[in-house]
Each structure stands twice: as C-alpha cells, then as structure tokens.
Amino acid sequence: MSDDRALLGPALHERFMEGERVVFSEETGAEQYLKLVATGHLDDSLLEALEDYIKRQRRRLGIHS
Question: What residues contact 57, with CB distance under 8 A and at least 6 apart?
Fold first, then answer.
C-alpha cells in the first residue's frame, strides 16, 4: 500500500453498505470549496481517476508539486 492510500484509512479496504457514500469537503471560503462524493467500493480505478484529475488541474493552474 502506498503512503497516499494509507492516508485514506480503513474505508479504502471495506465495502460500503447499500446507499452508503463517502463525502470529502474542503472549504477555503464561502465561494471556494471542493466536494468529493464517492459511492460503492473505492478501488484502484477510482483512486487513479482522482489522481489524474488532480494532475490535470495542477498543470492547468501552473502549480508544481
């Protein structure tokens, strides 16, 4: 398991009950926030999609990690 996945905790490895979801929200101001909603089993393909999205946004904004 990579260090990034360890940060997500045990929810990464557990199946959710029907209708259950994971919600992550980060707010930097009233007009600036990020909300991520995931349903079902969080697997490698969903995590890779999220990583790809973040990489594209960093490139678009000119932010280097």
Answer: 63
In whole angstroms, give the CA distance from residue 18 to residue 44.
Answer: 20
Task: For residue 29, give both structure tokens.
Answer: 């101001």
Q: For the segment 15-65, what is each residue's pLDDT rounded down to a tens digit?
A: 556 667 778 888 988 888 888 888 877 788 888 888 888 898 899 889 987
Q: 42: how many CB neighbours lie within 10 A of its CB?
A: 19
Domain count, the chain: 1
35: helix, strand or coil: strand
Is the whole-model pTM more than 0.70? no
Q: DSSP 3-state helix, strand, coil percentages of the chain (rounded to 5)?
A: 45, 25, 30
